[in-house]
# Entry
Amino acid sequence: MKNSATACRITGVGANLPERVLTNLDLERMVDTSDEWIVTRTGIRERRIVNEGTNTYELALPAAREALETAGVKAEELDLIICATATQDRYFPSTACMIGHGLGSGDAPAFDISAACSGFIYGSSIINQYFKGGATKHALLVASEIYSRIVNWKDRSTCVLFGDASAAVVFSAADGPEGLIDTCIRSNGEYGSFLTGGAITRAGDPLSGALPSMGENYFIEMKGNQTFKVAVKSMCDVAQRILKENGMSVADVDLVIPHQANIRIISAVGKSLGLPEEKVYSNIHRYGNTSAATIPLALYEAQKEGRAKKGDVVLMVAFGGGLTWGASLMRL
Ligand code: UT7
# Structure
């Protein structure tokens, strides 16, 4: 069993959702699908979509500001900024650098991480290690995703699944029982082809004049059935593992916040872990799959609804392209 003292705890959470709503009925007019298919197969009823031209860092800023305000932490007090995103605005500067600039966080180190839908869990794991190093007092973890930018809107098998959102969490140094108890992150590139996305870009050849055409051929491809099965198994395995390693069982957990990819995956994970429905949080019907943002967005809403309170033990568990998966266990 591991040491129960924590190195950091969550002191503020924020979220920013685009105002524009894309409903299943809207999608019925775009591709050969139906509200009935989408609801029964995924649980999604609507998702949010940014205005054309919105950048990932711009979507992140209000979420980050709200998290800082709730935490009572000034931007210039941040020792670290991490952005989890699969839809960064550019290869460089990183989205995190642009967020730091927008917040006025001075010269705090800032970088993006790429772990697709597991990005928030990967980020919390990195942040935990920074705090254990001792020099970090406040860190900002932002998950900001604009999947509407990479979705192929003619592909019904994927375009109905995703949405845009940003959510942010401030972690501050702690040494008591409240805080991040442990994290566990895993990957397996062997299954990378199950779920891939982004832009097809080619190396340029200035000698032959064959220069790459950027910004075309955006796509998401998923082997849905295979991904579904691995998602359920990986999330259950990592949830059980992190609890066991910390001398806890599902009975000690007040709320599980799983990645919101499909209501059937969420239910299967809850059932397999032996959890009652009320202990498994879901808001997928409102936002769809917002990749790295689903977990901090769910935490934000769970706190507002009084379902995640101070002192509660919360288990977050995610799965995504890579393949990547992982869990974060904390006492709020
Ligand atoms: O966030 C990262 C992790 N993501 C995941 O873990 C997602 C995992 N996978 C899934 O959530 C599900 O596999 C999907 C929601 C993607 C698909 O659900 P499914 O029950 O596995 O459906 P399927 O792919 O087996 O397709 C069943 C049928 C097919 O038709 P036929 O071949 O049976 O005639 C599809 O062509 O449903 C058809 N279909 C659709 N029909 C209406 C696929 N997409 C749609 C659609 N509307 N949007």
